[in-house]
Amino acid sequence: MSDIISLLPDSIANQIAAGEVIQRPASAVKEMMENSIDADATEIKLIIRDAGKSLIQVIDNGKGMSDTDARMSFERHATSKIKNIDDLFHIRTMGFRGEALASIAAIAQVELKSRLRGEAVGTELLIEGSEVLKQETVSCAEGASLSVKNLFYNVPARRNFLKSNPVETKHIIDEFTRIALAHPEINFQLHHNGVEVYHLNAVNLRQRIVGLFGHNYNERLVPVEEQTTVTNIIGFIGKPEAAKKTRGEQFFFVNNRFIKSSYLNHAVTSAFYELLPRESFAFYVLFLEIDPARIDINVHPTKQEIKFEDERIIYTFILSAVKRALGKYSVSPSLDFNDENRFNQNTSFSRPNKEMMDEPNPKLNPDYSPYKQIDSRTLSNQNNWKDLYSDSRKGEDVAIIPDTEFSTGTFTIPSRWETTPEDQPLLTTNEEKTQVLVHLQDKYILSAIKSGFILVDQHSAHERVLFEKYLQQLNSNIPAAQQQLFPQTLHLTTPDFEIAKEIIPEIRALGFDVQEFGNTDLVIHGTPSDIKDKDPSKLLEELIEGYKQSMQAPKLNKREEVALQLAKQAAIKNGTRLTEREMKNLLDELFGCETPSHTAEGKPTFVTFHLRDIEKQFEKLA
Prior knowledge:
By secondary structure, the protein is of the alpha+beta class. The chain is built from 18 helices and 24 strands. Strands 5-4-3-6-2-1-7-8 form an eight-stranded mixed β-sheet.
C-alpha cells in the first residue's frame, strides 16, 4: 500500500489557521492594533470601509520594521517575543505566537509599508493569498501602515457567513473600545467610510471611559482600588441606577489584556446583589495586575481566555473590592474630571442619605411588599371569617377586604358553580352571563371556564397582542405617528448608534418619527399614536437595547424582533391595576390573536387549571 500522508501546503495550512484566529473583520482589527501597541506606538489610526470587508487599515508611529523583519513577519510562528519555553510564563506583550499576520495574509490582499525610526527609507510589501507579489524600497513615514483588502476573498464560504455591515461594524467598535480602554495613554482614531467615529487623545482612564461612552457616564462612575499580595485591582464600576438590561459594557483586563470570564463576572454580579433590578447588568472596567507566572494566557487562539493559578482567591478579591467601593461611595458625589481614581477626600460618603433610609425601596429589598404584614392579632380585630364568607355570597362579583388597618391584596372569591352554566364560554357579551374576572396581585387575571379556570399573565398577554399588532403594521408599512410638541434628543453610544441605523426603517414604520443628528444622536419628532404616558427617548433606548441583546442569539427575523422589542416595552407592566373592563378587553384581544397561548419568545400567556386536578388535590388532603 502506498503512503498517503503528506504535509499540507503552507497556503492551505495558513487558511486553516486563519479560521481559528481570524473569524471576522473585528478579529483582524484586534491583531493589527495589538501589533501597533507592541511596536510602542503612541498614535494609532484605524480606517475601515464597508465594515472591514473592503478595507482595514492601521497606521501607527511605532518603531517600524526592517526589510527582513517585514518579510519574516508574515511567516507562520515568526515572533520576536519568544526565545525559549520560559518566556511563555513571563509574557507582557499583546502578541507572541506569530500566527496573526500569516493568517491574515492567507485570506486577504495585504499591503505593508514600514520604516524604522532614524532610517531614510522604508519598505513596501504586497502579499495576496500567502503569495508575496512584490517587495521594494519606498519612501514612507516612520512606523507602519498595514492595509488588509477584500477579507476572505478566496474563502467565499467564510465571507458569506459574515453578518450585515452594522453588525460587523459593531464588533469592530467593540474591539476598538477594548484596546482603547486598556491603553488610555495612546492617541486613537477610528474612521468608517470616510467619517471620523472616534478621536481620542491620551488621557487618564476615567476620561477615556467618558470619551468612549459619553459624558453622561461621568456621573455614573465609582472608583475601585484594591492592593493585595496576589493582585492589584483598579478601575471603575457603574452606579446601580445606571445598569442596563443588556450585556456588553463589562470589561476585565489582566495585565492590560482584555479577557472573558463568566466566573469573575459572577464576582461583580454578586457584589451588586439586591442593588440591581432583575436581569440588569452593571457597567464596570476593572484592571487586574498579576504576576505573569501565576496565569496561562496560551489557552485560546484569540487570547481572550486565560487560566489563573488560583481563580477562587481572585474571585474573592474582586468581590471584596467592588463591595468596598459600593459601600464607600453610596451617594452621587460631584466628580473632579481630572482626578484619576479618587473622590474629594474631604467629603464623606460612608452612609446613605435619609431618604434612602426612610423610604422602602423594592429594588433594594426583595422582601419588601407594599402590603402590610398580617398577624393573628390584626385578624382578630376584623370580621369573623364566617362573616366574610357569608358576605361573599350576597350576590357581589368580588368582595375585597377594605383597606382600613391593612391591605393585603387578598380577594374573597364568590362561589358561582351552582349558577354558572356548564357550557358557558370563556367570555360572553350577554350582560346577564358576564364572566367574573378576578385581578390577583395586580399581575394575573383569573377567569372561570367550564372545565375549571385559567390564570392569565397580564404582561405576557398584552405583549402577545401588541406583537401581532406591530407586526401587521410593519407589513402594511403605514405608520401612525403623533408629533411631539418639543422634540427629544436620544444620545447613544457609537455601537448602539450603529445598531439603531440598521433598524431605523422598522422604527419609522412603527410610528417613530426619528432623524439622525450629529455623530451618534437621534432626534425624536414623533411617537406611535397608541403609546401614551411613556418617555419616548427611554422607550426607544430600551427598544435598541433589547434588539442588541437579541442579536447574540437571533430567533426571529429583523422585523419580528423589532416588533417584539417594542411590544415588550409598551405592554402593561405587572403591578398595574386594571379595571374590570380593561381585563375583559385584554382577554378579548388575546383570544383574537393567531397564537394566544404563547408570546413570540415561547413564554405562556395563560395557564389552565382543570377541575379534576383541583378535586384530586382535595382528595389527597382528605
